Amino acid sequence: MLQLILPSLMDGLKMTLLLFSLTAVLTIPLGILVAISRIYAPKVLSRLLQMYIYFMRGTPLLLQLMVAFFGLPLVGVTLDRFSAALLAFILNYTAYFAEIYRGGILAIPKGQFEAIQVLGIGKIRGFLRIILPQVGRIVLPSVGNEVISLVKDTSLVYVLGLGELLRAGQIAVNTYASLLPFVLVGAIYLIITGVITLGLNRIEKSMIK
Amino acid sequence: MTENRTILTAKNISKTFNGKVLLNNFNFSLKKNEIVSLVGASGSGKTTFMRILTALERADKGSVQIDQLALCETKENECQYAHKKQIKAYLQQIGLVFQDFQLFPHLSILENCLEAPLAQKLDSKQNLIQQATALLTQVQLADKIHVMPHTLSGGQKQRVAIARALMLNPKVLCFDEPTSALDQAASKTIGILLQEIAKTGTAILLVTHDLAFAEKFSTRTIDATTFLKKSSLANTKDISEMN
User: Fold this and answer.
1) ipTM of this predicted complex?
2) Which chain A residue's Cα is nearest to B100?
3) Which of A75, A148, B51, B130 is the most exposed place for a label (fewest CB within 10 A)?
């Protein structure tokens, strides 16, 4: 039976990993940009971003997925299932990451910014070389949490009819009247999360010299 | 004599914060080779004065200049700050060692010293490494060049902060409470180091509440409590003269 189940689960896994990796790669840097803008941009832009973050964190991701796919065509924007799902994930996770980074930036002592100023290091270089690495250390555990949540949240795209890992498992359960596919799906999620956790631990160790 | 040349001049500096007068027409000058201490209780405005000199805070009134380079001037009864480029040039003349050092925790001691001169493109990396190594040797940290700041004691961190500031060859070096985190032995080491630095021509301003340290290692001591709020350069005297 395993031979029958595994190919469909692997197809589902591909979709899960594609959505996960694209979202992670895009939202982690986007979150930094939004966080910097929230703190340093003119008030109007900062306010707008605050509203955006409020909406993204205040409504369920499931609803946002449905709006991206079923709602956007009403205003003339039609996306295929995967693009709609990716858009919803990017908008949602950028908001969460932005708030995590904002907390990290605000946690850096004021004296570090003053040292950058007095030493004439320059705002951009100072931020990239002095502030950001320290922010990274502070936010890494929270970012790790979000990344792990993201792996599991990818299962929500079933609502758009996309064949990700859990949906593939669900179909296999119905087809073969066995719970084995669910066990396998659970094991695959655990393996993905385990690999991510190991990776994050390595990054954390490399940051603490 | 060159040794008596005035390097830093601050005239009629006034600063009010939240309705409280911190500085009122304060006049101050600093000569080459001098170590001047501003001594006074917390809240007397001495740190604010130093932060104005290092452009971390803005004066309400007054003028500040190092040699001929002005940070701010009073024009039509208003304090006008120089444009960005000039402030940048001014800041290259003055260094600050923070009370809590503010070393960059993720960079090694050597990297801490290199960051600012590399950013300002003062020299090639190789030459700057040589300069930093020499300075760190001078402050007795030759064996700590590649270690991280969190492994150092308070006195060692202080010396790294001094070396980091000296990498920019400032004409004026300011210290905010240099002995607050140090024991007596470390304070003495820092005091001697300050005198060595002053001998090379750098003018030093200390802001401290440690009167004993100030009297032992300064060439001039100013009582901030008395002078910052109602003084002029004319009546700035040594504490010893006041008593």
Assistant:
1) 0.88
2) A111
3) A75
Collect all residues with Cβ–Cβ distance below 8 Å to A13 and sequence separation of at least 6. Answer: A165, A168, A188
Q: What share of chain B is helix, strand, coil (3-state, %, to 5)?
A: 40, 25, 35
Taking the C-alpha atoms of residue A183 and residue A9, their distance in angstroms, rounded to an integer, is 12
| Longest Cα separation, chain B | 55
Alpha carbons A159 and B238: distance in angstroms, whole number: 80
**Closest to B116 (Cβ–Cβ): which among A109, A114, A119?**
A119
Does B76 score more than 90 pLDDT?
A: no
Q: Which domains does chain A have, with CATH numbers?
A: 2-207 (1.10.3720.10)
Let me know: does B36 contact B219? Beta carbons within 8 Å. yes
Neighboring chain A residues of B205 at a CB cutoff of 8 Å: none
pLDDT digits (tens, 9 = 90+) for B50-62: 999 999 999 999 9
**Per residue in B134-166, pLDDT tens?**
999 999 999 999 999 999 999 999 999 999 999
pLDDT at residue B237 tops 70: no
Mean pLDDT of A106-118: 96
Tell me which amino acid residue A48 is: L
Interface test with B, best of A112, A118, A125, A137 (most B CBs within 10 A): A118
Judged by DSSP in three states, B84 sits in helix
Lowest mean pLDDT among A94-98, B45-49, B118-122: B45-49
Q: Average pLDDT, stretch A122-131? A: 95
**How many A×B Cβ pairs under 8 Å?**
54
Strands B69-75 and B78-81: antiparallel
Domains in chain B, ordered, with CATH? 1-93+170-243 (3.40.50.300), 99-169 (no CATH)
Query: Taking CB atoms and an 8 Å cutoff, what residues of chain B touch A137?
Result: 106
CA A12/CA A7 separation, integer angstroms: 9
Residues 6+ apart with CB under 8 A from B163: B113, B132, B135, B136, B138, B139, B141
Instruction: State how far residue A22 is from chain B, nearest Cα, in angstroms.
Output: 30
SS3 at position A92: helix
Residue B129 identity (one-letter amino acid)? I
Place of tokens 């444009």: B83
Q: Can you give the pLDDT at residue B6? A: 92
Share of chain A above pLDDT 90, in %: 85
